[in-house]
Design brief:
- The structure is a single chain.
- By secondary structure, the protein is α+β, with helices and mostly antiparallel strands.
- The chain has 2 domains: 161 residues, NADH Oxidase, CATH 3.40.109; 106 residues, no CATH class.
- Helices cover 33% and strands 13% of the residues.
- The protein has a 4-stranded antiparallel β-sheet with strand order 1-2-7-4, sandwiched between helices. A two-stranded parallel ribbon has the order 3-10.
- Strand 5 and strand 6 form a beta hairpin.
- It comes from Spongiivirga citrea.
- Catalyzes the conversion of epoxyqueuosine (oQ) to queuosine (Q), which is a hypermodified base found in the wobble positions of tRNA(Asp), tRNA(Asn), tRNA(His) and tRNA(Tyr).
């Protein structure tokens, strides 16, 4: 076994031990195919008021601009599919936000993986990324063979669908690289047909400024009345395109205790949500990603749905 193969096997083994669903590795370099796509998406204002998407265009496309002498992008998936979902008679929050904020949970696991690499392999430089830096997570996951890009623009796998987080370690270590897998969406248009706000404007292209997740999380101003009645009771995020995807029949519940929801969250009714106080908000969403929208944001969303 070559030294590269040995290092690759060690990293993948440790990723599995830390609870990651899977680990794929790509050669760090410029994402040629993504560049025109990203440029077109931005030029069409599909990022709405998410102006941060315009920043660091070159870094988004080239990890060697984020980590000096980067050689490999180690992509990792972490399952968040819950065992139980909310009461059916309730305003809904996206399943990824049921438990503790994934940024903290994943950062901790990435730190452990990085320390393991340094202990077992030696002086390796790199950085960990969880969806908060200019890295095109989905493009790297696809390049690393972890799944294909679905028509709803989420990464899909035949075994477990799409309910997982994506994270990366970009390191200056040569490893063995994985290959992309084939697309298995076929002629299916379930996600496009089901999107309540027609945000999937063509297969594989989502207009972020029309997405319910954008309106309920990213948009800081009032939600436009033109979309009133189209939110299907989603008050934070939206899972419709994933819920209707045939590949998500194979989703299995996660085994990460930190992703388990506060029991109160699952039992709350519409009336409970309409009467929510700041104290209850703080208790139910103690360390949750829902805190991003703040109490005022969530109550704004609930009022909009009423």
């Amino acid at each position: 076994m070559s030294i590269k193969a040995k290092h690759t096997a060690l990293i993948k083994q440790e990723a599995k031990r830390l609870g990651f669903l899977s680990c794929g590795i790509s050669k760090a370099g410029f994402l040629e195919e993504e560049a025109p796509r990203l440029e077109k998406w931005l030029n069409n204002n599909m990022h709405g008021e998410m102006s941060y998407m315009e920043n660091h265009f070159d870094k988004r496309l080239d990890p060697t601009k984020l980590v000096d002498d980067a050689k490999s992008v180690v992509s990792l998936l972490l399952n968040y599919y819950p065992e139980e979902t909310q009461n059916e008679e309730a305003y809904k929050i996206s399943k990824y936000a049921y438990g503790q904020d994934y940024h903290h949970v994943i950062k901790s696991k990435l730190r452990q993986l990085y320390e393991f690499i340094q202990d077992e392999i030696g002086e390796v430089s790199g950085r960990a990324f969880v969806d908060s830096a200019p890295v095109l997570d989905k493009a790297w996951a696809v390049k690393s063979g972890l799944g294909w890009m679905g028509k709803h623009s989420n990464v899909l796998t035949q075994k477990v669908g799409s309910f997982y987080f994506i994270a990366e370690l970009i390191i200056d270590l040569d490893l063995e690289y994985d290959h992309a897998v084939t697309d298995h969406c076929g002629t299916c248009t379930a996600c496009i047909d089901a999107c309540p706000t027609q945000a999937i404007v063509e297969p594989y292209v989502v207009d972020g400024s029309k997405c319910i997740s954008y309106f309920t999380i990213e948009l800081k101003n009032e939600i436009p009345t033109s979309v009133k009645g189209q939110f299907d009771d989603w008050m934070f995020g939206c899972d419709v395109c994933q819920d209707v995807c045939p590949w998500n029949r194979f989703s299995k519940s996660h085994n990460e205790p930190l992703f388990n929801p506060n029991p109160e969250l699952l039992s709350m009714s519409k009336k409970d949500w309409e009467e929510i106080t700041e104290d209850v908000f703080r208790k139910v969403f103690k360390k949750s990603a829902v805190k991003r929208t703040k109490f005022d944001g969530l109550t704004r969303n609930i009022k909009f749905l009423k």
